[in-house]
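DM from R.C. (forwarded with permission)

"hey, sorry to bug you on a friday — could you get me a structure for this? deadline for the figure draft is monday and I only need the backbone to look sensible"
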Amino acid sequence: MRIVVIGSGYVGLVSGACFADFGHDVVCVDKDQDKISSLEAGKMPIFEPGLDSLVESNRIAGRLAFSTELAASVRGAEVAFLAVGTPSRRGDGHADLSFVYQAAREVAEAADGPLVVATKSTVPVGTGDEVERIVRKARPDLVINVASNPEFLREGSAIEDFKRPDRIVIGCEDQRTREAMTEVYRPLYLNQPPLLFTGRRTSELIKYAANAFLATKITFINEMADLCEQVGANVQEVARGIGLDNRIGSKFLHAGPGYGGSCFPKDTLALVKTAQDYGTPLRVVETVAAVNDQRKRAMARKVIQACGGSVRDKTIAVLGLTFKPNTDDMREAPSIALVTALEDAGAIVHGYDPEGMDQARQAMPGLKLAASAYACIEGADAMVIVTEWNEFRALDFKRVKSLLAAPVVVDLRNIYRPEDMAKMGFTYFSVGRPGVQTEG
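My reply, with the result:
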């Protein structure tokens, strides 16, 4: 099939590259000339494991191309995917759909034959209806059908998620669209992915409901971690104890500094606003969003307490700045609230991240960036683990102890064992587990 993907950001680029790898002819369109030029030169605008080689191999094979010319790219296409941004709208928290509607209009105006317009962007309930109205008004002479096809990609493992999905949700209202979307995903037949066909509005809500539920699991275990610290229990064992129940499951039960990223914060807020508009407030989701915001700030208080109650004029080394490992995404990262609060408390904060340094420089201009983990902790009064990159799991702790001005470690991801840290002479604090004092 001939496919055009509008938007070459995270979702658009991963989707376009994977569709091309399925054997489809794909053009990824973006208005940013610098981004398109970089992609044509083999330079990725984002960090995602395996994406550079996937893009390059399909570009060389002639199945994947990049362009700033939307009209020329749409001509001859059978399916056009909208993968443009839907950021939170300033002032009210609703999703800003202006890019989606503009892209739909331009696609319709450029179409030269029957077309399916499929929305991959995360959009509120009813967006597909408005997209349908826009495209039919723009081209009443053509058959243009509209589908909802939300993405469920985890940053850091997006390619695997796309090629071996738990499910593929497709919202449509007619047989022609169903057949076209089935053909798009036909190459996955051997993997037998479950194609779930629903109405468009149901499909749109599935995406928001999924993210809100996962955000709720994270927030629940984080609150349980706070309780564990007060009663002397271990949140990791609590999580395992409840996660072995098949009705609950073990995923997203890892206590930490709160969720971040491009999806959960934005989508929970948009879902809350949508529910309020329809007069059916989602009290649980509202509380999840509020608790998560508070938690990010609370992590700074945890670090301050570990440093004896004050960090004024102390140096704090923060390892891991992105919102999760294997990405360079800094959007809503817990490190931002943590670093800001520590700086407000008078600390000098040094930071290091394997992939997110450029983005961190923009998000936290006052942060002193280091070239490596060891350079970051040299002379620091405490080391704080914020993102659980693999390279932080195997640090040389003899070297770490020699570099730190004080042997204080605050592990916000629970990647170390308290008893091991105590034996190595560290005063160690983690999340939802008893703290330990140095043994030497």
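R.C.: lifesaver. The domain at 2-198 is CATH 3.40.50.720 (Rossmann fold).
me: no worries. The chain has two domains: 2-198, 233-440.
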